[in-house]
Amino acid sequence: MGSGEGRSGGRGTEASPKRPASERLRDLWPDIRELVYPRRGLLLLGFFLICISRVCGFALPVSTRYLFDNVLGKHQVTLLLPLVLTVLGATAIQGATGFILTQLLSIEGQKLIAQLRRKVQQHVGRLPVTYYDANKTGQLVSRIMSDVEGIRNLIGTGLVDFVGGVLTAVVSLVLLLQISPVMTAMALSIVVAFGLTLSRAFRTIRPIFRERGKINAEVTGRLTESLGGVRVIKGYHAEDREARVFSEGVQRLLDNVRKSMTAMSVMSLAATVLMGVVGAIVMYMGVHKVLNHSITQGKYVEFVSLLAFLVAPVVSVVNIGTQISEALAGLERTRQVLAERPEDEDPTRTHAIGPIRGEVVFDKVTFAYNPGHDVLHAISFTAKPGTVTAFVGPSGSGKSTTIGLVSAFYKPTSGHIFVDGTDLDTVQLPSFRSQLGVVLQETFLFDGSIRDNVEFARPDASEQAFLESCRIARVDEFAEKQDNKYDTIVGERGVKLSGGQRQRLSIARAILADPRILILDEATSSLDSESEAMIQEGLSHLMKGRTTFVIAHRLSTIRRADQILVVEDGQIVERGTHAELFALRGRYWDMYTRQHALDENLFLAPGEGDVIPESPDTPSARPDSARLPKL
Question: Is the pTM of this model over 0.70?
Answer without folding.
Answer: no
